[in-house]
Amino acid sequence: MRLPADTVPEIDPQRPSGARVYDYYLGGTHHFAADRQAAAVALAAMPELPAVLRMGRAFLRRAVVAAAEAGIDQFLDLGAGIPAPESVPEVARRIRPGARVVSVDLDPVAVVHTRRVAAGEPGSAVMLADLTDADEVLRAAPVREILDLDRPVCLLVVAVAHFIPDTERLGRALEKYREAVAPGSHLVLSHACAQGNPPHAQQVLRIYNHMTSPMILREKDEFRAFFGDWPLLPPGLVPAADWRPTGGDPEPGRSARREIIVGVAAKP
């Protein structure tokens, strides 16, 4: 489903939204009482959750920097969420002025806020779509008009794959995106990890299952398959905090360090 340019989708403030809860954890302002209540319940089960999400957000920034420094100036942000400080366009354009960014999300909340931020900004577009409908996304006007798929593109699938329970459907979609982009493109992925089955995991999953975005954990081998045969950039598949850390990154606690696994691959 794509969102016409002049349409504002209906938003239910009574049902917690995964995008708004995420925004709340990051210190944003785009959330309602229902979102804050759901966040409080999740925090009671997992107090380190905001630290985990900040760690994942720092990884996104570093991955965008790595892609831009590799010469990539086009970004397809699949599951972009609500804009936050150090957004993909902001980080990319700091290194590649004029970088082009298309943001895709299934959550109307995220699309509305992204559209407001991107309004009038050249080289930016946002669309309401299911990222697993890869054919529709790739045929959509924002992608065709803003991105040149004959040149390298950075595909971003960060903090969203664990909200897509159909592994086969997600895998097929990612395969289509990988096939559509040029050699030299990057695929950036992160995922909540099931390794070790932390004791609070099932309780947090139950909380998210009452939101607009039910959540699933996957094992490391399942996660690796999403990259297909693309070689991983060093340091490979690692916890988010360990992917090319910099001095200014948030320091996660020991228990938070293993919650999110990440990787970046380049198309040969």
TrEMBL record:
Transmembrane segments: none annotated. GO terms for molecular function: methyltransferase activity. It comes from the Bacteria. InterPro entries: SAM-dependent_MTases_sf, SAM_dep_MeTrfase_SAV2177_type. The keyword Transit peptide does not apply. It is an enzyme of class 2 (transferase). One of its GO terms (biological process) is methylation. Its EC number is 2.1.1.-. This is SAM-dependent methyltransferase. Keywords: Methyltransferase, Transferase.
